[in-house]
Automatic annotation (TrEMBL):
InterPro entries (UniProt xref): DUF6077
UniProt keyword Cytoplasm present: no
Keyword field: Membrane, Transmembrane, Transmembrane helix
Domain of life: Bacteria
Membrane-crossing residue ranges in chain numbering: 12-31, 43-62, 74-96, 102-122, 143-162, 226-245, 257-278, 284-302, 314-347, 353-371, 392-415, 421-443, 455-475, 481-501
Name of the featured protein: Uncharacterized protein
Pfam family, one: DUF6077
Keyword Nucleotide-binding annotated: no
Taxon lineage: Bacteria, Bacillati, Actinomycetota, Actinomycetes, Propionibacteriales
C-alpha cells in the first residue's frame, strides 16, 4: 500500500514522467516537420500519454527504493584551506576589474580555487555508506509542505507578473501559427503566411515547445498566447519551485528548507540577471524552461549516476537530451558544456556510470548541432561582431552589482564544499567549465564552430546558479553561525538585487494578464472590435508585436525591427517597411508622398499612429487623404468608426 506521506516522491517521479512525455512529443514533432502532418489531432493523445507517464513515474518513484545519496556530512576535507581562503579573497578583489572590461583574471582565479578543491579527489575514493543507511536523510513533512506552497506561489505570481519580451514575436507567433494552421513550417510566419524564407536567424525550427503550445491551445479553444501566458507559464513556474526543492533536498537534506528558501529569494531578486530573466521572467519560452527546469534535473540525475549505475537515470538523461532539442536550438551549445563537465568529473571519480550518463544526455543535442551546422541557417547570426564581450556576458550571468556578483561567484567556487561527496565534484567541474567560458576567445571559438553569434554567451549558464547560492547555507559552520549564515546569504540579494517586478518594463497587474504592455493590448483589442479589413496592418511598435503573437490571419508591417535585417524581399519592399516603421516609432518622419507610396507597396489595409505623435498623425492624414479615427490611444486610417 502507498502511504500518503510519500506524495513528495510521487511528485518527483511525476516530473520525470513529464520529461519522458515531452521527449516523445519532440520526436513526433520532428517527424511532422518533415512530413507536414497536422499536429492538432495529436494534442489530446499527448495529454493522455502525459497523464499515464506522470502516474507511472510517480508510482515507480514511490514503490522503488531511492538511490542512496551522500549526506550533507559526506564531504572530503579540502587540503590547503589557508591557500583556498587567499585565492577566494583574490577572486573577490578581481571582481572590481569588471568595471574595466576585464574578467579573465577573475575566471583564472576562480578556476584555480576550484582546482584546489578538486585535486584531493584524484586517486581517492569516498567510502560507501553502510547498507542500512537511509536513501537520504529524512526531510520533515512540514518542509515538504512549505516547499509545495512556495512552488504554487511562484505559479500564482507568474499569472500577475508582466515583463514584456520582444522574442515572443517569434516564439509565440510560431505557437499561434500551429494553433491556426496545424502544420509546423520551416518558413516565415511573422511577415507572411509561410510564403517567404524564414527571417529568424536562429537555426532550423527543431524546438517543439511552441508547436505543443499551439496544438494544446487549439484543443481547449483558446488563443495560443493565452495558453502560453496563462496556462503554461504558471504551470512551468510551479515546476521551477519543485525542481529546486528536489535538488536542494538531495544535496542538502540536513538544511534543505533554508537552502531552498534562500535559492528562491535569490531567483526572485535577480531581475537584472539571467537567473530571473530565464525563469519567471519568460518561463513560457523554451530556452527559459530548459535553463530553469530541465538542466537542473540533468545535474541531479548525473549526481545520482556519480554514486552508482542506474539504468533509469541513463534513460532519463537520454530523454532529457531529446527534450532539450525540443526546447531550444542552443541545446547544441549548452549540452556539450554540461556533458564535458560530467566527463571531467567521471575521470576524477573514475566513474564509468557518470561518463555513460553524460554521453546519453549529449547525444541528441550534438546531433541537433550537426544538423544546424549543415543547414542553410545557423544557431545564431553569422556576423562576428555580434559575439558578446565576456564582461557583458559575466554581468548577465552573475549580476551587474558587486554584491550579487560576489555572492554568485562564491556560490560557484565553493560548490565542491557545499555539495556533498561526488556531487560536489560533479558540480565543481560544472563551475570550472563556467569559468573557462569567460577566458579570452572562448565565445568566439563557439561562434566559429556553430555560428552562435550573439547567443554564444549561453555557454556560461550551464549551472542552476540560484541552487548554488542556496547551498551556501550548508557550509559547515558551528551553531549559531548557521543561522547567521542563512541571514547573511539572504540579505545580499534582498538588499543588492532587483525584484522581478521592479524593472521599468515590469509590473504586477490586478488580474492574470498576457505578458505584454497592457496599454498596447487594449489598443489592439479596441481596433479588433471595429472588425477592420484583414491584410497587412501598420500599428505602433508594441501593438504590432502583440498582433504578431495573437492572430494568424493578419500580418503587420514590422513585427520587430530586428527581423527586418534578414527580410528576404525586394529592396523597394524593405525600404517601404523601414519608412513606415519610422513613421510610427517616433523616428525621422518620411514625407507624405513616401508614406502614401509605402502603404500602396505593402498593400496596407489599416494604418495607425500613436495619438501623441501629432506630426506623424498629420503626415498619415495627408498621405491617405481622409480624417483619422481615434482608436484607443491611436489615430487610424482604414477603419470605420462605430455609429
Amino acid at each position: 500500500m502507498i502511504r500518503w506521506r510519500a506524495w513528495p516522491r510521487f511528485l518527483d517521479g511525476a516530473l520525470e514522467g513529464t520529461v519522458l512525455s515531452f521527449a516523445a512529443w519532440t520526436l513526433f514533432y520532428l517527424i511532422a516537420l518533415k512530413t507536414q502532418w497536422s499536429l492538432l489531432p495529436a494534442a489530446w493523445p499527448w495529454v493522455v500519454l502525459t497523464a499515464g507517464l506522470v502516474v507511472v513515474g510517480g508510482l515507480r518513484a514511490v514503490r522503488t527504493d531511492q538511490p542512496r545519496v551522500w549526506s550533507s556530512e559526506a564531504r572530503r576535507p579540502v587540503g590547503g584551506l589557508v591557500l583556498l581562503a587567499v585565492v577566494l579573497v583574490a577572486t573577490l578583489a578581481l571582481l572590481l576589474l569588471r568595471d574595466h572590461d576585464l574578467v579573465w583574471p577573475l575566471a583564472v582565479a576562480a578556476g584555480a580555487a576550484l582546482v584546489l578543491q578538486l585535486v584531493p579527489w584524484l586517486g581517492a575514493r569516498e567510502p560507501d555508506p553502510v547498507d542500512d543507511a537511509p536513501a537520504e536523510p529524512d526531510v520533515p513533512m512540514g518542509a515538504h509542505l512549505v516547499a509545495l506552497a512556495v512552488s504554487l506561489g511562484l505559479g500564482v505570481l507568474t499569472l500577475f507578473l508582466v515583463r514584456p519580451d520582444a522574442d515572443d514575436v517569434y516564439y509565440v507567433n510560431r505557437a499561434t501559427w500551429v494553433a491556426t494552421h496545424g502544420t509546423p513550417t520551416l518558413r516565415d510566419t511573422m511577415f507572411s503566411s509561410g510564403e517567404w524564407e524564414s527571417t529568424y536567424g536562429g537555426g532550423l525550427p527543431t524546438p517543439s515547445i511552441e508547436a505543443l503550445q499551439g496544438a494544446l491551445a487549439h484543443a481547449i479553444g483558446v488563443q495560443a498566447a493565452t495558453f502560453s501566458y496563462l496556462v503554461m507559464a504558471p504551470a512551468a513556474a510551479v515546476l521551477i519551485g519543485w525542481t529546486s526543492w528536489r535538488l536542494v533536498r538531495g544535496w542538502a537534506a540536513r538544511r534543505a528548507l533554508p537552502a531552498f528558501l534562500v535559492a528562491i529569494v535569490f531567483l526572485l531578486a535577480s531581475a537584472d540577471t539571467i537567473v530571473g530573466n530565464y525563469s519567471l521572467g519568460r518561463i513560457w519560452q523554451g530556452k527559459a524552461l530548459a535553463y530553469a527546469v530541465l538542466v537542473p534535473l540533468v545535474w541531479w540525475w548525473l549526481s545520482r549516476l556519480a554514486r552508482r549505475m542506474r539504468t533509469v537515470d541513463v534513460i532519463l538523461l537520454a530523454a532529457a537530451g531529446v527534450a532539450f532539442v525540443g526546447l531550444s536550438t542552443t541545446s547544441a551549445l549548452l549540452a556539450p558544456v554540461v556533458a564535458a563537465a560530467a566527463v571531467l568529473a567521471a575521470l576524477v571519480l573514475r566513474s564509468r556510470s557518470l561518463a555513460i550518463g553524460a554521453v546519453a544526455f549529449a547525444a541528441a543535442p550534438v546531433v541537433n548541432g550537426l544538423v544546424q551546422a549543415l543547414a542553410p541557417i545557423t544557431v545564431g547570426t553569422t556576423d562576428d561582431t555580434t559575439v558578446m564581450a565576456a564582461p557583458v556576458a559575466f554581468n548577465i550571468a552573475m549580476g551587474a552589482t558587486f554584491a550579487l556578483a560576489a555572492l554568485a561567484v562564491l556560490a560557484l567556487v565553493l560548490l565542491p564544499r557545499t555539495a556533498p561527496g561526488p556531487a560536489g565534484v560533479l558540480l565543481g567541474c560544472g563551475a570550472l567549465a563556467t569559468m573557462v567560458c569567460f577566458l579570452p576567445g572562448v565565445f568566439q571559438l563557439a561562434h566559429a564552430a556553430t555560428g552562435a553569434g550573439p547567443v554564444a554567451w549561453r555557454l556560461a549558464i550551464a549551472l542552476p546558479l540560484w541552487i548554488a547560492v542556496g547551498l551556501l547555507v550548508t557550509l559547515p559552520v558551528p551553531e549559531p553561525g548557521g543561522a547567521a549564515l542563512v541571514v547573511a546569504v539572504t540579505l545580499v540579494p534582498v538588499l543588492g538585487g532587483t525584484w522581478l517586478w521592479q524593472p521599468e518594463d515590469a509590473q504586477l497587474t490586478p488580474r492574470p494578464a498576457w505578458k505584454v504592455s497592457p496599454e498596447a493590448l487594449e489598443n489592439v483589442r479596441a481596433l479588433e472590435a471595429l472588425d477592420p479589413p484583414r491584410g497587412t496592418w501598420l500599428l505602433p511598435p508594441k501593438e504590432m508585436e502583440i498582433l504578431a503573437i495573437s492572430r494568424g490571419d493578419t500580418h503587420v508591417v514590422a513585427p520587430r525591427d530586428f527581423y527586418l535585417m534578414s527580410l528576404p524581399k525586394t529592396e523597394h519592399d524593405w525600404h517601404a517597411r523601414v519608412h513606415l516603421l519610422s513613421l510610427v516609432d517616433g523616428g525621422e518622419l518620411p514625407s507624405a508622398g513616401t508614406v502614401r507610396e509605402s502603404l500602396a507597396t505593402l498593400d496596407v489595409t489599416v494604418a495607425c499612429v500613436p495619438e501623441d505623435l501629432w506630426r506623424a498623425r498629420t503626415r498619415l492624414r495627408r498621405a491617405v487623404g481622409e480624417p483619422l479615427v481615434t482608436v484607443g490611444d491611436m489615430r487610424c486610417a482604414g477603419v470605420t468608426p462605430r455609429s
